[in-house]
Amino acid sequence: MITVVKCGGQVLDDDLLLEVFCRDFAALEGPKVLVHGGGALAGRFQKALGMEPVKYEGRRVTDEATLQVVTMVYAGWCNKKVVSLLQADGCNAVGLSGCDGSVVTASRRPPLTLSDGRTVDFGWVGDVTPGSVNAAFLQLLLEKGMTPVLSAINHDGQGHLLNTNADTVAASVAAALGASLVTCFEQPGVLQNREDPSSVIPIIDKETYAALKADGVVADGMIPKLDQAFDALDKGARQVRICHSGALLTGGGTIIR
């Protein structure tokens, strides 16, 4: 079975965490695809350039200047850094953005009404579905012994790049390939108490998720992670696990079902 792994959070901005993760990913048996974000690093670059990142419900607003920054960070530095580490670990990785081989297309997100009633235009932000993933191309790469490494920069097929949530990309790729999905970040899983790393919630189903959101236990950037996890299961992914980047091979974390 194919495994799709998503790596994000602070991991890509921490050399030690990233090196350990890439070593473990390279050792993961079977065909695999890596999807990465880089939002923490992109936010740091924005601030260094005098820009203030803007997010609503964990999702980044992407104007033209922000699109340029996230493209340089995600499809440039992060993607090639990860590929170089994987190559050093003996994994024949190939780094791609969505426009490379048209591996992932996206449609520009229309203005959305948030839970508080506000309407937000997210700018150059794309939405991805399993149907917009070029699964045949990914399968071809896997059959040739290559490991695709996908950034969250995709395109609309009309010459426009779009910033896409990496969790959405990973969920769509996993569903399109009928794969297992593992989402890795700097926490040991979904936490009952965000201040207590030992409070991992072992299993979350849709009913539990609704209660956790209502109680404010799950909030901010964890919402899109879990939304996409359930969406992946609904659309064809085999299973979903959310865990620490250092637990890729050892198990643990939160199982979504």
Structure write-up:
With 257 residues, the protein is of the alpha/beta class. It contains seven helices and 16 strands. An eight-stranded mixed beta sheet has the order 5-10-2-1-13-15-16-14, sandwiched between helices. The longest helix has 25 residues, at 64-88. It is globular, with a radius of gyration of 17 Å. The model has no long low-confidence stretch (mean pLDDT 94).
Keywords:
16 strands, 36% helix, 257 residues, alpha/beta, 7 helices, 8-stranded mixed β-sheet
Q: What percentage of the residues does DSSP assign to strands (E)?
A: 15-25%
Low-confidence stretches: none
Tally of separate helices: 7
Using the alpha-carbon principal axes, give the shape. globular
Helix content: 25-40%
Mean pLDDT: 94
Q: What is the CA-atom radius of gyration, in angstroms?
A: 17 Å
Distance between the termini: 18 Å
Q: What string gives the helices and strands in order?
A: EHEHEEHEEEEEHEEEHEEHHEE
Provide the structure class. Answer: alpha/beta
Q: In which order are the strands of the major sheet placed?
A: 5-10-2-1-13-15-16-14
Total beta strands: 16
- Major sheet characteristics: 8 strands, mixed
